[in-house]
Amino acid sequence: MAEINRDVVVVGAGAAGLTAANDLRKAGVSVAVLEARDRVGGRLWTDVVDGAMLELGGQWVSPDQDALIDTVAELGLETFSRYREGESVYIGPDGTLTRFTGDIFPVAPATEKIMVDLIDRLDVMVAQMDPDRPWEHPDAEALDRVSFEGWLRQQTDDAEAVDNIALFIAGAMLTKPPHAFSALQALLMAASAGSFTNLVDADFILDKRVVGGLQQVPLLLAERLGDDVYLGQPVRRLEWGDGAVTVAADGVTVHARAAVLAVPPVLYNRVSFVPPLPRLQHQLHQHLSMGFVIKVHAVYDRPFWREQGLSGTAFSPYEISHEAYDNTNHGDERGTLVGFVSDKHADDLFRLSAAERKERILESLSHYYGDEAKSPVVYYESDWGSEEWTRGAYAASFDLGGLHRYGADLRTAVGPIHFACSDLAGAGYQHVDGAIRMGHLVASQIVAQVRS
């Protein structure tokens, strides 16, 4: 086994780890990046499946994601706007499809009024929150004691309004049932995007994509680090003391002054810490868990839905695929739809055979777009729940009461061990933007310590 010496060892070659490593290198700090997979990128993965380029992981860039936008520009990458011309579709609880424009779903006037009122109320509450300090919200403890679904049902008995507002956080973002996380966690999700209104606006949240795929960001960052990125090196043991760490992977051991764990917190327990992490971290990390979503890619010989005057944007909390979008690649004559199946629906589908699962999902897409949606030329399911080095998607969130109880300690370094990933972010939480922000933050902290 090779043994090397560096100032800092970074565990994980996703956007956070590679951003931190590049910042450290620029500051004259030597680094080694250890990555368990045989590729860089973490939850960013652009691949060719049956001749179609698919973004298997994260892919969108929002206007407020300054850290990501700056990185994309600095790397010389180009972006293009998501196709959004035409009408969106919504399927209600009785299975009725309605075409619409704008952000608010086409529901009965009384339900629409309640939805608008709830969004306004949530915006007011979000405005009281610093996404980097959600536990300081004036009602933090009370909001962390009630599930988001429970809070919504306290506000109204209109079931469709509750289902639709819950969808924006539960299915679309945290990918957990709305009874499984707190109202405070929901506010953090909205605050991380600037407002609840921003989450409702698909044209804002899913604004642009990178030509050639978003995985180019970590790929180009890794290129700059050259041989200091070690692939296929899952970290097994981390010995730490006062100002020193020794990190042992399968084929290399790194002796350094500090370590950055740039992996989801659900993976910390894959590493044996010597001595063990403090009691607080042991408790904290057990209250974080991944959500689960199947990202469905369906490629057709042409974007047929555009011929019907449809944008490709579709929503329904009552469908297996609760949302779907036109995901056609830049300059591609073929058309691509991307759909999402979250939480318990995803659980249920993975109890079926692959053929049955595909049939059910395509049937759901056909409810939005018609029977032609049942016959893609390429079909693929991104199943991050089966990825050994991720274990879910999109990111980790706290259980009921966990955010107020442990949030303030989430990013706190333990001796020479620092933590950085999108799961820990405030602004940009669970997005690539948040990962980059955390990479910059932890690198600046380490550089300040090294120079002090």
From TrEMBL:
Recorded superkingdom: Bacteria
Binding, FAD: E35, A36, V235
Domain Amine oxidase per the UniProt entry, residue ranges: 16-446
EC number: 1.4.3.10
Gene3D superfamilies: FAD/NAD(P)-binding domain (3.50.50.60)
Keyword Membrane appears in the UniProt entry: no
Keyword entries, A-Z: Oxidoreductase
Keyword flag Oxidoreductase: yes
Cofactor: FAD
Binding site for substrate: F340
Main enzyme class: oxidoreductase
Protein family membership: Belongs to the flavin monoamine oxidase family.
UniProt-recorded name of the protein: Putrescine oxidase
Organism ancestry: Bacteria, Bacillati, Actinomycetota, Actinomycetes, Micrococcales
